[in-house]
Amino acid sequence: MTDRPIIFSAPMVRALLDGRKTQTRRVLGKTGGDVNIFSPKVKWSDSYVLDPGNKDWRAKYTPYASGDRLYVREAHAMVPSTAYRMSEGVTQAVNPKDRDRACIYREGWDRSTGGLRWRPSIHMPRWASRLTLIITDVRVQRLQAISEADAIAEGIKPHGDFFTGYGKAADQWMGPLDSFASLWISLHGYEGWDENPWVVALTFDVVRQNIDQMPGVVE
Questions:
Q1: Are 77 and 86 in contact (CB under 8 A)?
Q2: pLDDT at site 50
Q3: Mean pLDDT confidence for 42-61
Q4: Could you tell me the pTM of the whole model?
Q5: Measured between alpha carbons, how far is residue 91 from residues 3, 72, 73, 83, 136 in Å?
């Protein structure tokens, strides 16, 4: 079991909090150069990559496994622990090593910023994370091989019998595959979708708790 951070955009943090998101996809082949079986530099055939005989090679360059725990990083602000402590609807986490400092979260903030300095997700410390994901399944596939059921599990937002687009298509109602595509494009650009990269599809259970407050902490 490995603990590692994972970054989510604001719409996906909301999907996790709402219980709509139980999957995420991450691009493979970014490191390892030509020896990485997922590398776009060498045009491995899909049949070769997915060959059962290459299972161990795929696993070597897939940095996730069932049982791993992911602590979610999201946009946030650091404030004195006395700030907003009694405010209705404000979630606050106190630094266990400095009880005078606390973290509040950008997603769900429904009042004036009041001069708050929101910090990017990547800077969130482990102690401030309020969501932990327990990986239950790991699959490797091409991005565009996603099924309708998996697209819904990615947390796309329902709108009646359809789903909401993202980015420039935010005012459109779509089927699940088009909605997921618009979400991906809003995060990675059109080229990120058109390249159809190898991704790892992670299925997980969502625990609304800091990773270090859970049993089985990995030091």
A1: no
A2: 94
A3: 91
A4: 0.90
A5: 23, 15, 15, 11, 27
